[in-house]
Amino acid sequence: VQLQASGGGLVQAGGSLRLSCAASGRVNTWGWFRQTPGHAREFVAAIRPSNPSTYYSGSVKGRFTLSRDNAENTVTLQMNSLKPEDTAVYYCAASQSRMIQSSVPIDTYYEFWGQGTLVTVSS
Fold first, then answer.
1. H-run or E-run covering 6
2. How many CB atoms lie within 10 A of CB 3?
3. Hey, which end of the chain has fewer CB within 10 Å, N or C?
């Protein structure tokens, strides 16, 4: 499965951006992670096909919304009320395997990764 991410860019604090990721094949669980220089990759959000289905890190909960289109094999991360600390390279990730809830935030459980898209939030 190949993943193609899009939608990064530069935005002022308080603004919004929408990231999308398209897969060439079926996806069970989608995830978004982000990374800044010198830091480990950080879990942002994930969505499974079954209920409860969406998961967010504490730092983005209430500001970011993740949704999926199973027919199109796409996922969208709507990011609102962006803060400078949200600045990072964002990566979409996908797994074709069914994940248990505790595995969702762990990047090693995702088999496929997009190329990364830079989000810069200016203060």
1. strand 3-6
2. 22
3. C
